[in-house]
Structures are given as structure tokens and as C-alpha cells.
Specification:
It comes from Roseovarius ramblicola. By secondary structure, the chain is an alpha+beta fold. It contains twelve helices and nine strands. Helix 10 packs antiparallel against helix 12. The radius of gyration is 20 Å and the shape is globular.
């Protein structure tokens, strides 16, 4: 069972997507803790529906309307995205707003170690990941109609305030390390250096769809946390993910021989990114890593709260992920102290 009101959805699709007819079959994609996502099969083709989750949500969270807007704006740029078909902001149709996009087929790598690939193949995938991240940050905001996609000012001050508020609104346990990390970030905010670009907000390997038989990325997905801000937040988030345990839950590279596997070092990834964007080497990267861990801890705390409240996409997995909040806080403090 999909949990969708298929008769209502079918009627809406037939009214808003010319040529699409019912009946509609829907299957929910497994995994993920954010906006529930479904494959729709119709006599006229297959599509993907992404909706807000049910229940009481934090303000500004799960904004599928923003996801739709940014991906539509990126059509025709150097950033590969799925084609957007239609947005429904009427909650009465299936209970929450949703949008419809094309189904992009290809490979998604859940594990950064990419088991099954040769070392050269892994290196090519990482290079493509690096290329597209640079492309996201080089999008001309004005030309894409995204100059107002997020506020101006100091991105990290804004983000730290936002995620501190959301963390405390969803807190279920006392995590002293998280409070220490919040205080450290507030005391060490970098000056605004004028860099302002499109930020994906959750750029990692499993949010990229690669061609079936080539390293090219067909689509960057899951734009829920996107905004305009500072590029090093995305860059640090990639390295943060790689520092996680090489397990099904951690989805990192910790403890693996990267060179033998054909995987890039952190320094090589950052250097190639800077080369692609024509920018100088990045100083004081510890702050950005600390921030990345802090934000992930806050996100996972929200996942845990939704799981406990019974409205997470996968409640059991949500509780397991929520247990990592203290670990991310500790890793963030280590990065702040130069031990990350």
C-alpha cells in the first residue's frame, strides 16, 4: 500500500499533466528520512512524486515547493537535474503538497567505497562528483532566477541560529557535547568573505544518479536543504560523510585504504575543487568541518524526534540514526580543535 489517495491523485494528474491518464500505481521508495518519495506508473509513462511528510512539521522544513523551484531553475545549466513536471500546493488532494518529476534511471551508490567497481572506476566517479559540486557553486544566481532563493548576510551565522533553534525544538535527550559545539561555533564564526552561491545542503554520493555504464551524473536529487549561501558548507559535508564508519549506517570511508581502492584523499578532493573554481587554497577548514558535523547532528535529532512521534519515513531506522547525535557532536568538537 502506498498510502496515497490514488483516485484523487489520478484526477489531479489528468487535470494538470496533459496526456497523462490513469489508472495510477504508486510504490514508495525505501530508505530516506525526509520527504516521502514514490514511483508512479501510468499507461502513459512513469514519474516520481515527492511530498511533504504528514504530521506537525517544523517551520520551513520539508519545503517541496523550494525543491521544485530550484530544480526547475537549473534546467539547462551545467547542473544535471530531473525534469520538473508539476507542483501541487493544495493540501486537500493527497493531504500534503507534492510535486511530480521525471524518473531518472541509473546507478546510485549507497556506499562511498563503491564495492564492485575497479579502482579507476571509483576515481572517475569521485572526479565527476567533484565536477558537479563545482558546477553547483558556479551557477549564475541572477541568470537562473535564484538570486532571492535565500537571504544575504553571514551564511554561517544564519545557519547556526537556524539549526540551533531546530535542534532545541526537537531535543529528546541532554547532549552536553552538542551544547559545547553550539557555543564554539558561535564564538568562532568566520567573517563574511562575500562568497554567495547556490548550496545543495546535502551533497553526497547517494544523492547522485549516475549513468548505468559511465561516470557521468544524470541528476542531483534531494534539494530539500538547498539555499543560497557559502560554498564550503557543501564541500565540508562531503568530507564529513567520508569520515564516518564504513558501515551500512555510517556510509563513510573511515579505516579504508583509499589509495588502494582508487578513492581520493580529502586534500585531493579539496584541491581539485579549488582548481576547478579558480580559487585559492582554503584556510581554517576546521570551522567548516565542525559546522558540517553540527548541522548533521541537528538533522538527525529531528529524524529521531519524528521517529518517536511516529511520522518518520522509516521510524526504526530513524531511531537508530538519532543515536548518532552525540557522535556527530564529538566529531564536530574534534574538528574544531584541529583533531578532525
Amino acid at each position: 500500500m502506498s498510502g496515497l489517495d490514488l483516485p484523487a491523485l489520478t484526477a489531479w494528474l489528468e487535470d494538470h499533466m496533459p496526456g497523462v491518464t490513469g489508472p495510477v500505481e504508486a510504490v514508495k521508495f525505501s530508505g530516506g528520512q525526509s520527504n516521502p518519495t514514490y514511483r508512479l506508473s501510468t499507461p502513459t509513462g512513469r514519474f516520481v512524486l515527492r511530498r511533504k511528510p504528514p504530521g506537525v512539521l517544523l517551520k520551513s522544513a520539508h519545503a517541496v515547493e523550494r525543491e521544485y523551484r530550484v530544480q526547475r531553475a537549473l534546467a539547462g545549466t551545467d547542473v544535471p537535474v530531473a525534469r520538473m513536471h508539476a507542483l501541487c500546493e493544495d493540501e486537500t488532494v493527497i493531504g500534503t503538497p507534492f510535486y511530480i518529476m521525471e524518473e531518472v534511471t541509473g546507478r546510485i551508490f549507497d556506499a562511498p567505497a563503491m564495492p564492485g567497481l575497479e579502482p579507476s572506476g571509483r576515481g572517475a566517479i569521485i572526479d565527476e562528483m567533484n565536477r558537479v559540486l563545482a558546477a553547483i557553486h558556479d551557477v549564475d544566481l541572477a541568470a537562473a532566477g535564484l538570486d532571492d532563493y535565500g537571504p544575504g548576510g553571514n551564511y554561517y551565522a544564519r545557519q547556526c541560529a537556524r539549526w540551533t533553534k531546530q535542534y532545541r525544538a526537537t531535543a529528546t535527550d541532554d547532549v552536553p557535547g552538542m551544547e559545547r559545539l553550539i557555543d564554539w561555533l558561535a564564538a568562532n564564526l568566520p567573517d563574511d568573505d562575500g562568497q554567495r552561491c547556490l548550496v545543495h545542503g546535502d551533497y553526497r554520493l547517494d544523492n547522485l544518479i549516475f549513468a548505468p555504464d559511465a561516470p557521468g551524473i544524470r541528476a542531483v536529487i534531494d534539494w530539500e536543504l538547498s539555499t543560497t549561501g557559502h560554498p564550503y558548507a557543501d564541500l565540508a559535508a562531503v568530507l564529513m560523510q567520508w569520515a564516518m564508519p564504513a558501515t551500512a549506517e555510517g556510509r563513510g570511508l573511515a579505516g579504508l585504504d583509499r589509495a588502494a581502492l582508487g578513492l581520493w584523499s580529502d586534500d585531493a578532493f579539496v584541491a581539485r575543487y579549488c582548481e576547478r573554481r579558480g580559487i585559492a587554497p582554503i584556510a581554517d577548514f576546521g570551522f567548516y568541518l565542525a559546522f558540517a558535523h553540527f548541522r548533521m547532528a541537528a538533522i538527525l535529532q529531528g529524524v529521531k524526534k519524528r521517529a518517536l512521534d511516529g511520522n518518520a519515513a522509516d521510524p526504526e531506522r530513524g531511531r537508530r540514526l538519532g543515536a548518532y547525535v552525540p557522535e556527530f557532536a564529538r566529531a564536530g568538537l574534534a574538528a574544531a580543535e584541529g583533531r578532525g
